[in-house]
Amino acid sequence: MRVLVTGSDGFVGSHMVDLLLTLPGIELHGTILTSAPGPNLSHVISPIILHQLDILQRDGVDRLLRLLRPDRIIHLAGQAFVPAAVKDPAGTIQANINGSVNLFDAVRMLRAGGGADPAVLIVSSGEVYGPVDPALQPIREDYPLCPGNPYAASKAGLDLIAQSYAKTYGLKIIVARPFNHVGPRQSPSFVCSEFGRRFAEVALGMRKPVLAVGSLDVRRDFTDVRDVVRAYWALLESTTPVPVVNVCSGTARPIAEVVALLREIAAVGVTIEPEASRVRAYDIPLLLGSNERLRKATGWAPVIDFRDTLRDVFEYWKHELAHPS
């Protein structure tokens, strides 16, 4: 089986690669934006064939798919950070929508020519639901989309376009809506990785034991990225059609719990200082998903304890800070 992972050296992409390299019978291909892979793939010694590709270049996407004729595509390339989208909405829309449409059209042309009919998993986001009354959570897949920021809007657009391509052209597209995911190699722009790095800096004596924080009452549905990529593959393997599905733990945790667990893991005394500039106006107080559809279709369940996830994030940053490249 030939599998293509776009954005293979990104945070999620690299963990997807790790999983696929453990499975038999897979010829693994990945796309990277630059001429050499980023550090997230530096540990990979098993065979993976990398292709430099900008998904915004339609001709390049067409050529690669005609060359590979993949059986499955896991589309992870794109812009994934809400504040970056707030600063550059046009760039985010181009990356998340235009780049994905290039992929869909390339698959459509490949299929029309009789070359291949790959199953495609695309990644939307739990952010597409926007602010939802806590009484209506956990959020199910039939809840209306109401994106509350440019990143969420780009993902909602991608989500609906993907569904329309599946219905109009018969493409085998699965839309995954992941909620917050966490793990080693994640950018410190994201809350758990940011706190994991800062606690590691304190533990290594590189930072004063003071932690500036925004709202600690915000609650998020966190899942370990290694459980997330297992869910993606389980969806592609499933014989139960699930065109749209949430990928989430089904448990909402306040940011205060993240801080408390990391404090225990790091075993350091830290003073917590609220900082108004860290409170984002577009933050949603509660985002909690239902994973019932995913469980029924695939039998998937998260297996990595949240504390273990945070410990791995902390240890990752301790190693990275102590052994800078």
Topology readout:
Layout lengths: L1 E5 L4 H10 L6 E6 L16 E4 L5 H11 L3 E4 L6 H6 L1 H24 L6 E5 L26 H20 L2 E7 L2 E2 L8 H13 L6 E4 L5 E3 L1 E2 H13 L6 E4 L4 E3 H12 L4 E4 L11 E2 L4 H7 L7 H17 L3
Parallel strand pairs: 1-2, 1-4, 2-3, 4-5, 5-6, 6-11, 7-10, 8-13, 9-14
Antiparallel strand pairs: 9-12
What's a quick, concise take on this entry?
By secondary structure, the protein is of the alpha/beta class. It has helices at 11-20, 58-68, 82-87, 89-112, 150-169, 191-203, 225-237, 255-266, 292-298, 306-322; strands at 2-6, 27-32, 49-52, 72-75, 119-123, 172-178, 181-182, 210-213, 219-221, 223-224, 244-247, 252-254, 271-274, 286-287. The longest helix is centred in the first third of the chain and has 24 residues, at 89-112.
Question: Explain this structure to me?
Answer:
A 7-stranded parallel β-sheet has the order 3-2-1-4-5-6-11, with helices on both faces. The chain is α/β, with parallel strands linked by helices. Helix 5 (about 150-170) links the parallel strand 5 and strand 6. The longest helix is centred in the first third of the chain and has 24 residues, at about 90-110. It has 10 helices and 14 strands. The protein has 2 domains: about 1-180 and about 220-245, Rossmann fold (3-Layer(aba) Sandwich); about 190-220 and about 250-285 and about 305-320, UDP-galactose 4-epimerase, domain 1 (Alpha-Beta Complex), CATH 3.90.25. It has helices spanning about 10-20, 60-70, 80-85, 90-110, 150-170, 190-205, 225-235, 255-265, 290-300, 305-320, and strands spanning about 1-5, 25-30, 50, 70-75, 120-125, 170-180, 180, 210-215, 220, 225, 245, 250-255, 270-275, 285. Helix 4 runs parallel beside helix 5.
